[in-house]
Amino acid sequence: MAYIVNKNDRLTVYVEDLTHDGSGVAKVDGYPLFIPNALPGEEVEVQVTKPMKKYGLAKLIAVKKASPDRVEPPCHVFWDCGGCQLQHLSYEAQLVQKRKTVRDVMDRIGKLPHVPVHPVKGMENPWRYRNKSQIPFSEKNGETIAGFYKTRTHDIVDTDVCIIQSEEADELMSTLKHKLHELGIRAYDEINHRGMLRHLVIRKARATGELMVVLVTRTKKFPQKEAVIDVIKSVVPEVTSIMQNVNTQKTNVIFGEETILLHGKPFIVDTIGDIQFEISARSFYQINPEQTEVLYGQALEYAQLTGNETVIDAYCGIGTISLFLAKQAKEVYGVEIVPQAIEDAKRNAELNAIDNAYFEAGPAEVVIPKWYEEGKRFDVLMVDPPRKGCDEKLLETILEYKPRRIVYVSCNPATLARDLRILEEGGYRTQEVQPVEMFAQSSHVECVAWLEI
Ligand code: SAH
Fold it and tell me: Which positions carry the signal peptide feature in this UniProt record (predicted)?
């Protein structure tokens, strides 16, 4: 079938825009071409790789006129690795771009052109910010490799350094990779479902410096376990926790069901504001600790608590937002689908002597209607759903009972805009949207929206 462009065509095009996942967009007689690594404002030579009905993909051959915002990516594997998408764009321009992404979906999907979208609250130093690394291990030509996946593939881009993760993670990743071979421990072979070490997961608590290392293995039997523990201790003598997680399945889900303590404690302690949290191997915890305080601070500001409010924290994880809000509210009710996270939340409430936070495990769309049916009433609803946004049934419940204020924390502006539109149809008015940087160098952006009825 013929399109405006054909496979392998070479064209010179002007890049108008950037997609939410960091590809440049050029139009050929109105037909969009998506070009990874090209930036808005650039004139580029491209080669068409995949023409399709409504749009095509092309690869960048040469930049003829570069954007003034183009910079040399500091990471040596940036062009291959799928971890970051925007290292070739100056950090200031990344923030401008992310605000524009949010503005666009608010206009197009939310139909909210009048709602202010503030400049992104960015980072002072947008490097080495991640407190968690999940590093796949494998083998290639008889060598152990470890790093991150190429975009949309399961090909590991082998590296010893990742400049958005901690230095400890770099050292553990490279030392273990080089030592495994010596110890005769095979890394996992995804295709044949053989080998031992699948993933190395490292978590560091920024406030306390506590460090957890999790070795995800294919079998429970772990030959040379002591030697591996010694290697880890030689790299990070202060390590707080070493865990083994067993994942026997042929799957790309990282963790399996069983987690075994190998050394130290089964959790690390971190603080956000003045609240302490115990974090275990599998709990959800925001990955950018410096910006988590900014994010939660914004959520707290929009909640405008005086001490008399009863608040819901829906999708509460281990209760981080709930406990952060509890001191300023009368009561907080947290709900979360993972029972283990709710156990963590309850323990964290105790740890901080907070006695006005209640937690229940279950789907938010089931538990919240139940609370209302039991006669409970809420002033402020905080929601922080996963990327797919709020469940339809939860939105229906909100519109039925109409808590007067909603604070919506979102890691996906498109589903946020969709849900805001539904809430607007039901009578809510979106007051403001504040984007917050949580994922510097990547194309992701977090937002907090404030609604009133
Ligand atoms: N507010 C927390 C966690 C946000 S991540 C924090 O800032 O740390 C989103 C959470 O929603 C995850 O913990 C996930 O397990 C949970 N979740 C996903 N679907 C859910 C549902 N239908 N009901 C309740 N929680 C859900």
Answer: none
